[in-house]
Amino acid sequence: MKEKSKLFKVFIYFCLIVMALSILIPVMWVFMSSLKTNPEFYQNPWKLPASFYLDNFKDAWEAANMGEFFLNSVMVTFLGLVILLAISLPASYILARMEFRGKSIISTILKAGLFINLSYIVIPIFMLLRDLNKMINQGPLSNVMGGAFLLNNRLVLALIYAATAVPFTVYLLTNFFSSISKSYEEAAYIDGAGYFRTMVDIMIPMAKPAVITVILFNFLSFWNEYILALTLMTDQTKKTLPVGLINLQQAARGAANYGRLYAGLVIVMIPTLIMYILVQKQLTEGMMIGGDKG
């Protein structure tokens, strides 16, 4: 039995090492390629760069407008996360801790939203915004909100991102809030705290692992989203990083400027790597923290 256990552990470690290498090797290759000059790409692709050719990043940031796309992505992602948390945290707390008429119906609708893929509703969203624009242009607000106000609007894009992420976020947070003992709320009510203060001062801090998890997952989703951003953001100055990266890829094929392309890929990856490094400790903590401990 001990020999079988050792063999099983060796097999598990081998699988983990293979999976880690399958991720690390492509990432390291992209980083190395971003520091190469064009002639180096026609040599051994696995050869280390002769020097740190940082002009690729400068060229991608300025000439390819990756800096502008980067700021657009930061703005849209930040606004989307703020809107999402402002909606999902109170909704999750109410669904988990309170009883009211229609609760089961709302929970069922939110669970059904888990099965709706954003890619399937891009065209209906675009047509809805287009028709709303027509109504605005024909109404009394045409002088203030005329034109394609709901298209090429970073706030609208962030709002749609948040709306599509609400079902998953509420589902995850509701399960976590439900696992926390009611004794904490009872103690807060005895001290004179209302529902809002109890949620902000007690429940949300206790749900920190779950909150960080949904922030990370939704950050990756918003940051890397392509189809909706491509459809709604037709203005070149308001495109996000994934859309700008595709444009950079097409330009690199024509000009054979691969260093700039890989530099653009690194610019896209760096925020996600930094985000993961900052929250990995909280992510590895048990998701069931909370409840009575004494």
Task: Provide structural commentary.
The chain is built from 14 helices and no strands. It is mostly helical and 294 residues long. It has one domain: Orthogonal Bundle (MetI-like fold). The chain starts with a helix and ends in a 10-residue tail after the last helix.
Outline:
The chain has helices at 2-33, 38-41, 55-63, 66-97, 103-112, 122-138, 142-145, 154-179, 183-190, 195-206, 208-224, 227-232, 241-255, 258-284. By secondary structure, it is an all-alpha fold.
How far is it from the N-terminal to the C-terminal residue, by CA?
A: 39 Å
SS class = mainly alpha
> Which ranges are low-confidence, i.e. pLDDT below 50, for 5 or more consecutive residues?
286-294
| Count of folded domains | 1
The overall strand count is 0
Q: Give me the CATH architecture, please.
A: Orthogonal Bundle
The backbone outline, from C-alpha atoms, is: globular
CATH class, anyone? Mainly Alpha
Please outline the major beta sheet: none
Percent of residues in beta strands: under 5%
Order of helices and strands: HHHHHHHHHHHHHH
CATH homology superfamily: MetI-like
As for the CATH topology, it is MetI-like fold
Q: Number of helix segments? A: 14
